[in-house]
Amino acid sequence: MxxxxxxxxxxxxxxxxxxxxxxxxxxxxxxxxxGDMLLMQTTVPPAAxxxxxxxxxxxxxxxxxxxxxxxxxxxxxxVAAYIQQHTQWADIVAG
Length: 95
Prior knowledge:
- The chain is α+β, with helices and mostly antiparallel strands.
- It has two helices and five strands.
């Protein structure tokens, strides 16, 4: 069963954060360039490595981008691997 995570966009820190029971959030950092959202790095606490939080976080960010009509540029290897496995997101990848 897929676990639900509360994910928020911390705009001040330029990162999406998934609340974790251990207190350390899983994060996906981003930047902006010419209107594109650059997905920089996904960080998952070691204790949550196999929890699925990384995939949940990436999916949430991709849904956010699509909903807001954003194009993304992928610099994070975890996001790149996720999109390679879930090709329905390829249309929002810039260039």
